[in-house]
């Protein structure tokens, strides 16, 4: 029979799984408390990094409808619950893992879809949302200016063609 504390922990973790855009499971064996504190700071305000109990977290994930992570709840596990830009958090985790090889990215979930450790590394290689949006806006602006030039070119080309026809007609009419 579950204790009230465990039931409350499961409920809290379930809410965190449901309210986050992404969740990344990591193994933190060998990291010091100071290193974990640095990791939490590097994740920023858009993510919450929590050391969790595997059994309770697995129950909470299942209650939130996430079953793809079940096999990864082994060993010392911590979860990064991401509420902001998942790319930013993935980059922070990747960069921290490069500096601290004891942090191992196990797996994750993004908008309900399971991610492997390699998928999370690929996500970290993406540019931030703002950069991608500005590139998209630039591409749209470029296409609009090309369309405007095309629309301006048609009437001017028509005018040049009509002038050439008039000049040719004047030459033919004046030559006879």
From TrEMBL:
<keyword id="KW-0699">rRNA-binding</keyword>
<comment type="function">
    <text>Forms part of the ribosomal stalk, playing a central role in the interaction of the ribosome with GTP-bound translation factors.</text>
</comment>
<keyword id="KW-0689">Ribosomal protein</keyword>
<dbReference type="InterPro" id="IPR002363">
    <property type="entry name" value="Ribosomal_uL10_CS_bac"/>
</dbReference>
<comment type="subunit">
    <text>Part of the ribosomal stalk of the 50S ribosomal subunit. The N-terminus interacts with L11 and the large rRNA to form the base of the stalk. The C-terminus forms an elongated spine to which L12 dimers bind in a sequential fashion forming a multimeric L10(L12)X complex.</text>
</comment>
<dbReference type="InterPro" id="IPR047865">
    <property type="entry name" value="Ribosomal_uL10_bac_type"/>
</dbReference>
<comment type="similarity">
    <text>Belongs to the universal ribosomal protein uL10 family.</text>
</comment>
<dbReference type="InterPro" id="IPR022973">
    <property type="entry name" value="Ribosomal_uL10_bac"/>
</dbReference>
<dbReference type="Pfam" id="PF00466">
    <property type="entry name" value="Ribosomal_L10"/>
</dbReference>
<protein>
    <recommendedName>
        <fullName>Large ribosomal subunit protein uL10</fullName>
    </recommendedName>
</protein>
<dbReference type="InterPro" id="IPR001790">
    <property type="entry name" value="Ribosomal_uL10"/>
</dbReference>
<keyword id="KW-0694">RNA-binding</keyword>
<keyword id="KW-0687">Ribonucleoprotein</keyword>
<dbReference type="InterPro" id="IPR043141">
    <property type="entry name" value="Ribosomal_uL10-like_sf"/>
</dbReference>
<dbReference type="GO" id="GO:0005840">
    <property type="term" value="C:ribosome"/>
</dbReference>
């Amino acid at each position: 029979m579950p204790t009230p504390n465990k039931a409350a922990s499961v409920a809290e973790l379930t809410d965190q799984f449901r309210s986050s855009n992404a969740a990344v499971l990591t193994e933190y064996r060998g990291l010091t408390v100071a290193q974990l504190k640095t990791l939490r700071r590097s994740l920023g305000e858009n993510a919450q990094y929590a050391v969790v109990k595997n059994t309770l977290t697995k129950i909470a994930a299942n209650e939130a409808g996430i079953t793809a992570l079940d096999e990864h709840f082994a060993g010392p596990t911590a979860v990064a619950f991401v509420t902001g830009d998942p790319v930013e958090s993935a980059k922070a985790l990747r960069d921290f893992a490069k500096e601290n090889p004891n942090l191992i990215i196990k797996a994750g979930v993004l908008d309900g879809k399971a991610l492997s450790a390699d998928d999370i590394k690929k996500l970290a290689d993406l540019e931030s949302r703002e950069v991608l949006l500005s590139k998209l806006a630039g591409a749209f602006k470029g296409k609009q200016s090309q369309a405007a030039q095309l629309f301006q070119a048609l009437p001017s080309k028509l005018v040049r063609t009509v002038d050439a026809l008039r000049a040719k007609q004047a030459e033919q009419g004046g030559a006879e």
